UniProtKB/TrEMBL annotation, chains A, B:
The lineage of its organism: Bacteria, Pseudomonadati, Thermodesulfobacteriota, Syntrophobacteria, Syntrophobacterales. NCBIfam families: PRK00051.1. It comes from Desulfoglaeba alkanexedens ALDC. Homodimer. It catalyses: 1-(5-phospho-beta-D-ribosyl)-ATP + H2O = 1-(5-phospho-beta-D-ribosyl)-5'-AMP + diphosphate + H(+); 1-(5-phospho-beta-D-ribosyl)-5'-AMP + H2O = 1-(5-phospho-beta-D-ribosyl)-5-[(5-phospho-beta-D-ribosylamino)methylideneamino]imidazole-4-carboxamide. GO terms for biological process: L-histidine biosynthetic process. The keyword RNA-binding does not apply. This is Phosphoribosyl-AMP cyclohydrolase. Its cofactor is Zn(2+); Mg(2+).
Length: 126, 126
């Protein structure tokens, strides 16, 4: 029997937490359906399902900031994934930060606590 | 203006990644609605919305394994939360492991790669 996430849950769309395999920093969260799961296994590169664009995407297909999946963990309920990755380009966030979680909530305010790694205007110009 | 997560998204239910504030280990994922958010801020203890039981719950209310929230990060889209916590009792998972992600996916199999911290039958007996 082949183990896999339980895609009968979450309307077939499960959250994947993405963590830097070396530093342990949490980089982002995205959603994975069965197609994205299969593509990720097949290629070793993180694939997700975009809920806004309603399509499969490979992380980094525009920016080049591909995520090489080093390890996959599944949670106790088999409905959440943890991808431990090597983040190419050093930044997961389309805003140019290493992590999407670059703002700390402090008593009602949001404070940027990370350094920008790249300029989004340079990377995403079309 | 008070910053907060964008509860207009995800039908008012946003994923919260829970990370050990010291070790950086990812412990679990749960969902937060506006009520759980307010309760978490008010008490400093992680509160979530249970999708299966359809009710607010404080993590650890049965097991005593409360999560003290040390830091909150919000992502670029304001629709995912990161709680950095001190996990009381040393274990977040109801299966008795420090992390819910105690199984590694290895070529179609799931392998337990963490040690059990407690016996669920002892902690959750009713």
């Amino acid at each position: 029997m082949t183990a896999k996430p339980d895609f009968s849950k979450g309307n077939g769309l499960l959250p994947a937490i993405v963590q830097d395999a070396e530093s342990g920093e949490v980089l982002m969260l995205a959603f994975v359906n069965e197609e994205a799961w299969e593509k990720t296994l097949e290629t070793g590169k993180a694939h997700y399902w975009s809920r806004s664009r309603k399509q499969l995407w490979q992380k980094g297909e525009t920016s080049g900031h591909v995520q090489l999946v080093k390890e996959i963990r599944l949670d106790c309920d088999l409905d959440t994934l943890l991808f431990k990755v090597k983040q190419l380009g050093g930044a997961a966030c389309h805003e140019g930060y290493a992590t999407c979680f670059y703002r700390r909530f402090e008593g009602g305010d949001l404070r940027i606590v990370e350094e920008r790694v790249f300029d989004p205007k340079e990377v995403y110009r079309k």
